Amino acid sequence: MANGAGSIQARLDAARSSRFVGREAELELIGAALERDVPPFSVVHVHGPPGIGKSSLLAEIATRAAGVPRTVVRISGREIDPSTAGVEEAIADALGARNGQPARPADSPRLLLMIDTYEALGALDRWVRDQLVPSLADDALVILASRLPPSPDWRLDRGWAELLRELPLRDLPDQEARSLLSMHDVPPEHHDQILEATGGHPLAVELAAGAWRDSSANGWDASVDPRVMGDLLGAFLDGVPSGTHREALEAASFTGVATEELLRSALDTPDPGALFDWLRTLSFTEPTSRGLAVHDLVRELLLADLHWRNPDRFAQLHEAVTLHLEERMARSSGPARRRAMLDLLQLYRFNPVTRGFYDWSDPEAMHVEPALETDHDAIVAMTREHEGDESARVARYWLDRQPEVFRVFRRPDAAEPAGFVANLLLDQPGDEINEDPIAAAAWRHVRAHGALRAGERIRIMRFWVAADT
Questions:
Q1: 397-428 residue pLDDT tens
Q2: d(Cα 103, Cα 107) in Å, to the nearest integer?
Q3: DSSP assigned state of 39
Q4: With contact defined as beta carbons under 8 Å apart, do 144 and 48 qualify?
Q5: pTM here?
Q6: How far apart are CA 455 and CA 69, in angstroms?
Q7: DSSP state letters, 253-287
Q8: Chain-centre distance of CA 126, in angstroms?
């Protein structure tokens, strides 16, 4: 079988390499090691969520290694028998196909052994670490590509702490993602739409580019195209054990982070510990100080798909998570209350009225807190800047009467507020009927449709102003 120059495989490899973008830091690190007689490290563990480009990186490394030279062997954990004999046979077969005769990896000079989808060989991890890799010559380099990071035993062993390099793969930076779109013949004027929907995730970019190219419909939206969502979710959700596990993942996707308490409230389950433990094992969740964060792209894909597939279930989960966060706000104070408020704010990104009012790409870029008296002049000034003198007068009126309803947004590195909101609370008509035309209109609406009952109030989202827009 022809696998060298002049084969279709060679043409495939060249075509794939021509469409490879980014990962320069990773390629530089591995390339420098491959050129050394004895690499400074013996194992590279590449990991990241599905579609992030692990296999593409391995293919590019193999292409570049051809000029070093190296004895390149690449196998996939998904395609071989998950046993020690199965791995040894797969490596021997690859070496035999390359050299024309059976060979042992320990006897192969300057070996570059790459094992893709390494997570499929999880039961063999100890054998790989303690027997397979140590048996190789000291000039060998092993690259493991997995959805999961290295097991703790790799990090706790003092020897491997020196000879292991861990390479987590992230989404492509903006410019590299745009280069990938250009390779797929997407005009620059459409890049922003696709990147907003995909966040620079390589597989998502490629799928969205293909769907855009094949679609002749005006107003095509990458974020809701069922083809894009279906293909990506198929990759991310491969192996989800049950519908309950998927619901746990969907509930966790509504907010920035997931906790056992959130799962207990949203799914009405008395013991969410097993579901939370399962979420921790996923390649697209990450532990933070407040709980488990779900990868942004997975969050948006799951919820867009749920809204498209089962809008009633979407509404039920949305309401359950909202009630959970409101209860959390009610029983907390200080930073914990502000954090709950920001999590609750995240739910408004699904509201067709309010989703255009925020930049949802970086919710941690600023925090929300009650306005201080020293903020009042800035609030009035930004209102005058964007809404005029009359609106600024009304803002001052409410600052004097309900200062507690004003919330300001602050960036970590700035003292001045970046914007503010004010949600008025009214229980009976007062002099605001003469001072604020919006409040007056609200009271007219109430009178026309029935007076407030005992204990009821009306809330008016009266101001929503940013300093620079």
A1: 999 999 999 999 888 777 889 999 998 989 88
A2: 7
A3: -
A4: no
A5: 0.58
A6: 80
A7: HHSSEE-HHHHHHHHT-S--HHHHHHHHTSTTEEE
A8: 30
